[in-house]
Structures
1.
Amino acid sequence: MEREVERIVRDIKSLRIQGARNVARSAIEALIIQVQKSRAKTKPELYSELLEVGDALAGSRPTEPMMRNAISDAVRFTLMQIKTHPALDVNVLKRAIVKEAISYFDEMEGNQKKICDYGARLIPEGGIVVTHCHSSTVTGIFKRAKDMDREFSVIALETRPRYQGRVTAKELADHGIKATLAVDGAVNLVMKKADMCIVGADAITSMGDLINKVGTSTVAHIAREHDVSFYSSAELYKYDPLTLFGNRERIEERETAEVWEGAPRNVKVRNPAFDATASRYINGYVTEMGVLPPQSLWSIATQRLGLQIAGI
Ligand code: RUB
């Protein structure tokens, strides 16, 4: 594996690269680097290099189906080229893979623009919106709403232990949006005056449940308690197709030192990075296909991603 690719794997693991979209984007960048620098002389050699890099990337953050879906697309594309063009030269194949991977970035940008347009229309004029963690999709929506001259303010929850809420608050304030940071434990208190909640997504299951930064489910439950609408914004690439066959989304457990460095030996420390919010707490998913009810997301995502369901 190329050194630069190893560095990207490390950066994803350590959260230097953070957020599902950034992670997926960097994973594809890594595949492009590997293919461009590959010394593979044959197509099977190139294919096994791709599989090796794909496995290392996918294992770097287990709760990231957007990255997995993007890697699978690249691997599937390569396999199809090998099968359908047996005479294809390995260097021509390398260029074709790179071209295909670059087109994924354009698609991502187009999707993000649509999500920001749909999401911005949901932001209530003069309202207070609560968010959790840092999602580039959510901050994109807020910035779009601001650029449409909508007046609103955002409360970003701090998001222990890695404080991604600070990244959100600063990014929004730098864009001229009124931003307040509150500790996670204040969620009930701040929700009393809120008009809406919106968070990102790491994974969406076939049941329409949301997997996002730990603490998201608490935000959703408390929003329901106060009758505040709760949305998640996500590209359909975040749908995990394996959940349709009963697979549960794996929740990443991170280093306990992130929570308490040097904790007493007789204290057990847990550090789950994500949690699951049941679909009944979610008013809608803001996607590139519009604001979808959680129950219909799986079928629209299946069509959009061109997935085959065995037996149908
Ligand atoms: C980030 C997080 C974000 C989603 C969506 O967790 O939970 O809400 O990844 O982000 P972490 P985006 O900091 O552990 O990666 O909308 O940018 O894809």
2.
Amino acid sequence: MSGAPAAGAALVWFRRDLRDFDHAALHAAAGSARTVFCAFVFDREILDPLASRTDRRVEFILASVLELDEALRARGGALIVRHGFARDEIPALAQALGVDEVHANHDYEPAAIARDDAVRDALGACGIAFNTHRDQVVFERAQVLTRAGTPFTVFTPYRRAWLARLVPADVAPHAVAWRPGLPALPPEVFRSRPPTLASLGFAPTNLRTLGIPTGMQGGARLLAAFRRRIDDYATARDYPAVDGTSHLSVHLRFGTVSIRALARYGHDTALRVGPGAQTWLSELIWRDFYAQLLWHFPRVVEHAFRPTLEALPFPNDPARIAAWCEGRTGYPLVDAGMRELNTTGFMHNRLRMVTASFLVKDLLVDWRIGERYFAARLIDYDLASNNGGWQWAASTGCDAQPWFRIFNPVTQSARFDPTGGYIRKWVPELAQLDDASLHAPWLCPAETLRAAGVTIGREYPAPLVDHAAARTAALALFGRAAKDAR
Ligand code: FAD
């Protein structure tokens, strides 16, 4: 950063970027102001409507916020933490601290964009600038477009264009030029006891028992461990019984890791080593892809990306929905995935695809119902990626494939959990069955079931639907909708 800071004081408003390094807003504020205050708001606009008072995300955020505060204290400052409505808290805080500018990183979700517009207006009315920065993704908004200047709606050409556009500066760290007094210690009146889960109105979850590492240190630990596995990623990532993926999604969601650092690492490793890192980098590009898609097409939050498949006449049978949610569909792989989600707040990517496809195309349930169920439970819930993933699985979204791709839950099971390690973990009532019988227990001879202590309909449910018949029904439903739209 060159030259003397122009502004007297600035406020950095942390949101989904809970780190003190390689941080675009902090970097910009440190470059332009002599004094930099830091704040985080537990936003009641987001927290109050949450259905459950035990929410792993709140616990993850709290732990990460406390770690960030500690890191800022070690540098001589502190994090001002508020519990209220960010739309009101931030303008009030900025005025009370007497700052000239507020800095934050871009958010691409429609509700966050509306909140930021309101904050910008309120700050503007008191002569305070609101400066926002790209930080959450490598390329945002309209930075990667087709030759015709339109947004990409298919991933493969987007990925090609993304890679062609990338130069080292895009993933260079936004180093924070720390100097004495930066970050600033807030005046006494803004120093309060750190919040607790109880003071936020929440109860503890099993986050710690599960050993989910929080904060910047947790993100760094996961990355260090993943570095030892990345070469195998291209193959291992599809097998849920294998620890083949990075588990960094929750850290990317809350910004305790830097996407620039991860993309830089993925890109450099791909050049040196090959397919594992290449595939992993592609997954990070999927994340950018869905973020730009949400920004260009905010209607996808409620509507099918493909208008022709907007109003599919799904029966939405409540009994089927309940069985899917609770992991008792009678299809072991599907049930294992749903039980992993319910117990841990995480689900392996292969399972997200299988369970989503099963809900929509086997049980004939509107994708929006499943999308909301995931949204309430995933610790890494991200509107752009979740909506993108669900619409992809439901064939209503951005996919080069037509709607007749339907996952077979039995062949997926035999292929991706061949020795049943994942199913045995989450569906223990089937644990005694042999590897071959585990994927479709209702087809087992009675004596095999008896020897394994399983009676279909008692220890484990009969399949809720017959996959072959369900597939035919789904093809007919989608086919009629596509024909009517012509
Ligand atoms: P890794 O395999 O290590 O991948 C590295 C990172 O790349 C991930 O952390 C994630 O940020 C990104 N990534 C990987 N796959 C995808 C993808 N398909 N789309 C977008 N980004 C991707 N991901 C979320 O972060 N939040 C969600 O709410 C979410 N919902 C999903 C819903 C459905 C129906 C589907 C099919 C996928 C969803 N995904 C979501 C994508 C993916 O399943 C998770 O990112 C991944 O399982 C997280 O595990 P990981 O961190 O070990 O991933």
3.
Amino acid sequence: MPETIALSLDSIYQLAYQAMRDNGADHDNADALANTIFTAERDGSVSHGLFRMPAYIKSLKSGKVKGNASPTVSTPTASIVKCHGDNGFAPIVQRMAIPHLIKAAKDQGVAVLAMTHTHHMAALWPEVEALADENLAGLACVSYMPMVAPSGAGKAFFGTNPIAFAWPRPGKHPMVFDMATASMAMGEVQVAKREGHSVPEGTGLDADGNPTTDPAAIADGGVLLPFGGHKGSAIAMMVELLAGGLIGEAFSYEARERDNGDGGPPQGGQFILALNPEKLAGAGWADHSDGFFERLTGMGDVRLPGGRRFINRQDTGPRHINKALIDTISADITDPSAILK
Ligand code: NDP
């Protein structure tokens, strides 16, 4: 097993924050991104926590992403919120725009947030969980760069195109699923490569188009497959259309064409839909859907998506972080010893 270092959650936040600050980000941008890293590590979303910091830093250094982004929000109609991300990382854009989305959905019953000119490389559950915390259902999706071969093809065309959905449960944790439409997120494939694990059959093809269980063969020149054959392929296509065509942002292949290849997140958009059950179903919606969840979870070993994270969240102790990763991040921080003491 690779060597790890125990880091408190506060140190994880500080490491991410300082890496951002020492590479040109202002306080607000650094704080928003570091909070995303902290929540990912806290909840056990390790493929989208500190593991992503080196890529974020590369994009600050190359100038592709602005560390002092100042997103602007507009509301062209009562149920449409647009946010121009000023080429910042997604967390600062979400921090600015989601309160407007919540207000619009509470007033109108349904509202859409179209985020453009932003760079997303995180898990999606924080944005839909923020909606569920306000008793709204939420659906979010984002495309990426071509990494997934559509059903019937041997070359990449779709991004890993995650989709997340949250359902509010007043007084309880919401139900939240958040999943790549690829058979496996590329971040997980990269973690498997780093840790020396194989991946399940059906995860991807190697550079010659042959099925493989070697994560390195997929990550280095190969291609991922969609989950569920043609059905997952259709959902990946829907994500491209919602996060690209609908909101006037890049499809995955366009994001690749305009990317500078620095290894950080490409410029693209994010689609977030908020739905108000109080306005649609009326009073009693929460008890009604809780009855549904009780029946569902009463069926054998069924657990609700999101449950693993909520259990992890209760643990306020240190997290065991790959030492080589900490060394890589520390190399871009002026005085890491102040954080890693
Ligand atoms: P997983 O396959 O690990 O999990 C997908 C969902 O299924 C989660 O909500 C998980 O909940 C739930 N789940 C897992 N096992 C069970 C079970 N036995 N019963 C019920 N529910 C279960 O996720 P992926 O690997 O597909 O994606 C990982 C992350 O990568 C996501 O957060 C995604 O947003 C992110 N990503 C981001 C991209 C980007 O460009 N920004 C691109 C691609 C992916 P739980 O968490 O509780 O286990």
4.
Amino acid sequence: MSILVVGSVALDSVQTPFGRVKEALGGTATYFSIAASLYAPVNLVAVVGTDFPQEHIDFLKERGVDLKGLQIVRGKTFRWSARYDYDLGAAETLDTQLNVFASFHPNLPDEYKGSDYVFLANIDPHLQLEVLEQVRNPGLVILDTMNYWINYKKEALTEAMTAVDIVMINEDEARQYANTFSLMRAVREILDLGPQAVVIKKGKYGACMFCDSANPISGCFFAPAYPLEKISDPTGAGDSFAGGLMGYLARERDISGEAIKRAIIHGSVVGSFAVEGFGVDRLRNLTLEEIEGRYQEFRHFTHFEPLEA
Ligand code: AMP
């Protein structure tokens, strides 16, 4: 079952306390595609400039990512540079050069329009809405976003959130969206828009899902983050998480509540591998066997016995 992703393909320059990369392969759709392609075929819609290195195109093709939807436009590829401090929490964006991304409009090839699984990576919500206008009856649509769109395009973002099945958002951004200190109030406000579930990303503290706006606790699920000894670069953790989550659901052809819980663990596992290397390095040779090994460890460290009667 194939997956459609629309987002950014970028050249990232990133510094963390443990090293730096310059103009490395990055972008939300890139991280997502590399992760999801471990599970199911991925169709990518994005734009790059004529300066985009051929080796990156070859790598994505080798991973089985279909690039018919990748527009190559005269000009420079989107560039992002950022820095993380020792906390490795939020990235401090140093520079964003939209370049060819500034005039990007997603044009879905006809064969992508019937996609069952759609991931609207973090891009302008107007573009996310343009994708929704082109797809026919998708089985599952997940939307990701960021603070920038909450600040500047809240109306369009609200319209897009209303039209998808799952909203995936960082904890701080959920609270910012709802203008509240309470995560639970923010979750309720987003669920009231119509999505079936909200997945809250909490970075190094893991992720959780809420699916019942009348009683968010009754329909919630919490996954911790994998306890890592080595973290190199948190860039792309959220998109890799989304790739593992949606990849698993597409492979299993199951979007029941229980499947989504297993998918959140898959996402957490893939995200944990992604941050071990710089850029997409650790994802390049990641195997399903390694993912399944860490999945079993998650089962072990989240299991506990009921209270004795
Ligand atoms: P994440 O660490 O999962 O939040 O995503 C990091 C990726 O987002 C990087 O690879 C960047 O190239 C990409 N990115 C950063 N800013 C933007 C933006 N404004 N629009 C689209 N992609 C972006």
